[in-house]
Every structure is written in structure tokens, then in C-alpha cells.
Specification:
3-stranded antiparallel β-sheet, oxidoreductase activity, acting on paired donors, with incorporation or reduction of molecular oxygen, 7862_t:CDS:1, heme binding, 5-stranded mixed β-sheet, single chain, binds protoporphyrin IX containing FE, heme, globular, Cyt_P450_sf
Length: 462
């Protein structure tokens, strides 16, 4: 413990560079080495910034504490509020929207999802019997983003293809901002933030322009719905989609609608819903044990119905275990940034952090711990959680793929349902290769784990 009781700072040679090189070249190995030497709480110097890494036995203290802010941590990594023109503490509003609009109507959404999914998969494959997929991530991202955006937008908006392009283009620009080189952080982390905003603006300020355009495009749809609500009264059947949720939000005055606010929140939802679901969906594709999963599909849906109910999807226990295992082994190694608020933060072991400290969670210390997993944690075992009463959406101190505590992912039930439906459809329709004894390799790039290998899809004859 250092004099002021702060967590130990991992030694480094060069002041400016700190641990950046080790972090970028192999974040998993680097963090594991630090953990072995310093324990489950330590501070590293990456991109000119001190970052405290918190692992097992202590991570939950961050998730439940009111002294650590998830929204402020997120904001430091991605200045989404300034890119899109949002209020600063927008994550809580989005979480509420997910709970109220998505989760209350999850059956309706998953029904739409399947209809659109089948269409998008067919679009992707056309008449091909065999298709080489060079990037599983791009492949899943393409299908999931089009499908998600389409179900969130609603019926009328689906007829305006321009909206879809706007949403997907803006998501792409936001995603790309994560890969802008972090060199200015060596002078001050705030300069990197300015660089991100400057780069986005210099490239035509696509997000802001797109939001103005989206606001114009949704205006007639919103006005039409409000007019119908007024004129038809109780006989008005309001569509079940995100747009309705936003129109009915307490922030919206129906006689003076803030169309831009609605547009930005549609964008935000598409961004949060699509990015992680697509990345994890792609990680599932590089799994193994397809034949067992196919067997389960034949039991759950023997007639090969196009639309499966949520009840049937919940019966896919093997698939759930497979998804949980994929989630356990994937994702960003150092993730779930939190910022310490003005009160400072004290760990139960006596370490403390001053206001403004940045914290990230060491997921591997939990997900690869021998005592927390059934069997060898280093191996991919799709059946690891099968019949263990350990569903993929149930978070806890031993499994944090969706976070934990105050900001636990409100979209996790929806995300897992969608991944199950995507996988079910692909497994039923295609043989996915290579089907080997081990999981194909991921590429770790700048701290991100990306499925990085080619797959071959062969259409099943029946
Ligand atoms: C496999 C897919 C997904 C993964 C792995 C994932 C993971 C996460 C994680 C790790 C957090 C941070 C939790 C924390 O720090 O405690 C989070 C927050 C959040 N997620 Fe997800 N997520 C996924 C899909 C979704 C979807 C589909 C939606 C929306 C429909 C969504 C909406 C949100 C929101 C709004 C928050 C912020 C919650 C808050 O501030 O209270 N996520 N997610």
C-alpha cells in the first residue's frame, strides 16, 4: 500500500509512455502479469492517464457505489453527448427507455425481429449455396444493425430507407471515434477528447448533420401519430416501437415537439443496442458444438416454424449456456469505466482513490477464475452452464458480462433473446465451418477482442 493509501502503481520505465505499449500489444497478458504481482487492485499508466484496474472480490464495490459514476466514466472514453448533442447524464435516461419501451413489449419486438432477420439473412446470401465470410464481425454487424434499427424505428419509418442509412452511418462514425490514436492524451487526456470532436467535425460533422436530417424525417411521422391520438381517442392503436416510447416520454410536450431530442434518442438506442449485440453475436459464431445446438433446435422447434415464441426461445438451455460461455470468453478485457466523484472512493481493504480517478474493471480476473467457473476456465466449453441453473442474463460477483449493480445492462434480456434467435436461424439454415476442436482465434486490438477468422456457410439441404 502506498503512503496515501492509494492502490499500488505498477512500475514502468519511461514516464510518458508508461504501460501503453504493453497494454496495446497484449492487454490480457499484461493485466494478468500485473495481477499476479500486485493483486486485484492496481494502477497503470496508459495513454498518459492513470487507470486503476479493479478485479475480483472488489469489482462489485465499484458497481454498487454512489461515489463512482458509470456515466462520467463512459463520457471520458466516448464523448457521445458532445458528438450527438445530448444531455451529459444520458445513460440513465436511455436505461429507463429500455426498461419502459423495450422490456414491457419484448414479445412484440422479438416477433418483428424474426421477420426482419429472415429477410436480412436472405439478402446477405441471395441464391448462394456457399458463402465465405471473411469477417464474422462485419457479417453479424450488418445483419443485426439492419434488423435492430428496423424494429426500433417502427412501421412508417421502415418505409423511409434514408433513415436507416442515417442511423447506421452515425453509428459507424461513433464507433470509429474509438480508434482515433490516443497520442494527445500524453499531454492531457482532455486533449484527446478535443481531438475526437475535432476529427468528427472536420470529417463533415456527420452525426450532428444526420441528427438534424433525422429530426426532419421523423417529424411527419410523429405529427401524424399525435394527430391520430387526438382525433381517434381511445380507438387509436398506438404502434409498439421506440418512437411511441419517445413520443410519450415526459420530456416531450406534444404541442411543441422537440424532434431533435427524439432523433438523438433513437440514434443512441440503435447505437447501444446494435454495437454490443453484434460484437457478442459475432463471438458466438466462432464457437463450436454446432451439432448439439442443432439437435436442441430440432427439439424446441421440430416444425421449423419461421417465428418462434419467447417461451420456446427460453427452452433453448444449451444455446443459453453456449451464449454465456461466449460472453464469458469475449468482450473488452479492461472495461466498464467509472469515474470517482467529488467524495473520493474507499475500498473495503483500505485502499482509497481521490476524486477524478478513472477505474476500469478487470473482467478476466473474474471470468477466468478457476473457483468461479465449472471446469477449466481457459477452454471454451459451450455446455459449461448447461443444467447448472446459471442463465446468461443472471449477473453476479462471478459473472459480469452485463455489468452489475446500479447500471447493470437493462438490455441484456433483449440482447440474449436476439442472439438466440439469430443463432437459431443460422444453425437451422447453414452448416457453419470451420467446426474444429478448438475455438478459432480472436484478435486483440487496442484492448478490444475481435473475432478474427474466416468462416464458411453452407446452406443445409434440409
Ligand atoms: C450482448 C449484448 C450486450 C452487452 C454485453 C451489454 C453490456 C453492458 C454493460 C457491461 C453495461 C455497463 C454496466 C455497468 O457498468 O454496470 C451496459 C450498460 C447499458 N446497456 Fe448494455 N449490453 C448489451 C446489449 C444492450 C442492448 C441490446 C441494449 C438496449 C436495447 C443495452 C442498453 C444498455 C444501457 C442503456 C446501459 C446503461 C445502463 C445504465 O446506465 O444504467 N445494452 N451494457
Amino acid at each position: 500500500m502506498s503512503e496515501d493509501n492509494e492502490p499500488p502503481l505498477v512500475k514502468y520505465k519511461y514516464p510518458l509512455i508508461g504501460h501503453t505499449w504493453d497494454y496495446l500489444s497484449n492487454v490480457g497478458d499484461f493485466i494478468a502479469k500485473c495481477r499476479a504481482q500486485y493483486g486485484n487492485i492496481f494502477t497503470i499508466n496508459v495513454h498518459g492517464r492513470m487507470l486503476t484496474i479493479v478485479g475480483k472480490e472488489y469489482a462489485h464495490e465499484i458497481f454498487v457505489s454512489k461515489d463512482c459514476s458509470f456515466a462520467r466514466g463512459f463520457d471520458e472514453i466516448t464523448p457521445l453527448n458532445e458528438i450527438l448533442g445530448l444531455e451529459r447524464n444520458f445513460t440513465s435516461a436511455t436505461a429507463e427507455l429500455v426498461r419502459k419501451t423495450l422490456m414491457d413489449n419484448v414479445d412484440v419486438y422479438t416477433h418483428h425481429f424474426q421477420n426482419v432477420l429472415h429477410e436480412k439473412v436472405e439478402e446477405e446470401f441471395g441464391n448462394l449455396e456457399t458463402k465465405n465470410v471473411d469477417s464474422p464481425l462485419d457479417f453479424v454487424q450488418d445483419i443485426v444493425s439492419k434488423t435492430m434499427a428496423s424494429i426500433l424505428l417502427g412501421e412508417e419509418a421502415r418505409r423511409v430507407p434514408e433513415m436507416m442509412s442515417i442511423l447506421l452511418e452515425t453509428s459507424r462514425v461513433i464507433g470509429e471515434s474509438w480508434f482515433i490514436p490516443n497520442t494527445l492524451s500524453y499531454i492531457h487526456p482532455y486533449l484527446h477528447r478535443l481531438r475526437v470532436l475535432w476529427t468528427v467535425r472536420r470529417a463533415g460533422d456527420i452525426p450532428q448533420k444526420n441528427m438534424a436530417l433525422l429530426a426532419q424525417l421523423i417529424k411527419p411521422i410523429v405529427d401524424d401519430r399525435i394527430r391520430k391520438e387526438k382525433t381517434l381517442g381511445s380507438s387509436w392503436k398506438e404502434p409498439v416501437d421506440l418512437l411511441s416510447g419517445l413520443i410519450n416520454n415526459k420530456r416531450i410536450d406534444k404541442s411543441n415537439v422537440d424532434y431533435r431530442w427524439i432523433a438523438v434518442h433513437i440514434q443512441l438506442m440503435v447505437f447501444v443496442a446494435v454495437h454490443s449485440t453484434a460484437a457478442f453475436g459475432a463471438n458466438c459464431l466462432i464457437g463450436i458444438n454446432w451439432e448439439e445446438l442443432l439437435e436442441e433446435q430440432l427439439e424446441v422447434n421440430p416444425e421449423n416454424k419461421k417465428i418462434i415464441t419467447n417461451e420456446e426461445t427460453n427452452k433453448m438451455e444449451r444455446m443459453d449456456s453456449f451464449i454465456k460461455e461466449s460472453l464469458r470468453m469475449s468482450g473488452v478485457v479492461v472495461d466498464m469505466y467509472h469515474k470517482v466523484l467529488e467524495s473520493g472512493f474507499q475500498f473495503s481493504n483500505g485502499y482509497s482513490l481521490p476524486p477524478g480517478s478513472m477505474i476500469a474493471i478487470d473482467k478476466n480476473s473474474i471470468h477466468f477464475d478457476q473457483t468461479y467457473t465449472f471446469g477449466n476456465p481457459l477452454e471454451f466449453d459451450g455446455n459449461r452452464y448447461f443444467q447448472k441453473d446459471s442463465p446468461s442474463t443472471k449477473v453476479g460477483k462471478t459473472y459480469i458480462a452485463f455489468g452489475l449493480g446500479r447500471h447493470v445492462c437493462p438490455g441484456r434480456f433483449f440482447a440474449v433473446l436476439e442472439i438466440k434467435l439469430l443463432m437459431a436461424h443460422l444453425i437451422r439454415s447453414f452448416v457453419i465451418k470451420p467446426v474444429g476442436k478448438t475455438r478459432i482465434k480472436n484478435l486483440t486490438f487496442a484492448g478490444f477482442i475481435i473475432p478474427f477468422d474466416k468462416l464458411v456457410f453452407e446452406r443445409r439441404t434440409k
